[in-house]
Amino acid sequence: MSKSDAETTTGAMPWVDGKSRVFGVIAHPVTHVRAPMVFNPRFAAAGSGHVMIPIDAPPAVLETIVRGLQNTANFGGLAVTIPHKLAMAKLCDELGTVARLTGAVNAVRFDADGTVHGDNFDGAGFVAGCRGNGFEVTGKNILILGAGGAARAIAAALCEAGVGRLTIANRNLEKAQALVDLLRHEGGFENVSAAALADTDGANTDMIINSTSLGLHADDDLPLALDKVSKGTVIADIIMVPAETKWLQAAAAAGFPVHYGRHMLDYQIELIGKFIGAL
């Protein structure tokens, strides 16, 4: 089959051969990842020959898989998502500013000299996605559910954007307080506080962001009940697949404005792509 025949039959699939540069998105599970659906059509349109693949890496073997990719000559880098953002940062030789502040990465580049570089663009993508979809975060009262890697990056970016007040609510209060202390001491942000998720009802907020993994599966509990939340509050999720999580469906049905997880990725594609050498 010729290249033109293959392009006709595969549509947006990039042409892959021995000269192709391979990139990945690493997660566990990988059923929710969306990055290949965004990057591969761009590779095809540019005629670059690159391809991005999903890589399912259980936490127990994450380092083994990463070291194997690091020593694969035609492998360029990774987008990183749940649950590996914190663990992956520890496997990097060098970290960008946001990654150092948050201790989490969502993009990793493998250089020819064997150096592993990591950085985090989740926060920048989330804030840009909010603004691009009509919600200005500056001066607003915002609640983040969760205190993991994505929460750290989003919290740092929101503080830099000048939110009025930021609350981090987590099942483990100590973990939420640790993030608050980091933002205060390392970032100089003062209008941030921690709360136990069990004691949080979401009242008097302009936006609530679910940064936990609750919503990846249809039988997951809701991250937060909505009965005490003001109707004008924006309900946001960072989960990309499914796009309509049970929490967002409940919010939309109750009349809340909703903000989808895909925006966080869509608005950071250029940043991640350039960092890992894909775009």
Provide a descriptive summary of the structure in words.
It is a single chain. Helices cover 36% and strands 19% of the residues. The protein has 279 residues and is α/β, with parallel strands linked by helices. The protein folds into two domains: 3-120 and 265-276, Rossmann fold, CATH 3.40.50; 123-263, NAD(P)-binding Rossmann-like Domain (Rossmann fold, 3-Layer(aba) Sandwich), CATH 3.40.50. Strands 2-1-3-5-6-4 form a six-stranded mixed beta sheet.
Secondary-structure map with pairings?
Elements: H1 3-10, E1 22-27, H2 35-46, E2 51-56, H3 62-70, E3 75-80, H4 85-90, E4 94-95, H5 97-102, E5 107-110, E6 116-119, H6 122-132, E7 141-145, H7 149-160, E8 165-170, H8 173-187, E9 192-196, E10 207-210, E11 234-237, H9 246-253, E12 258-259, H10 262-266, H11 269-276
Parallel strand pairs: 1-2, 1-3, 4-6, 7-8, 7-10, 8-9, 10-11, 11-12
Antiparallel strand pairs: 3-5, 5-6
Helix pairs in contact: 6-7
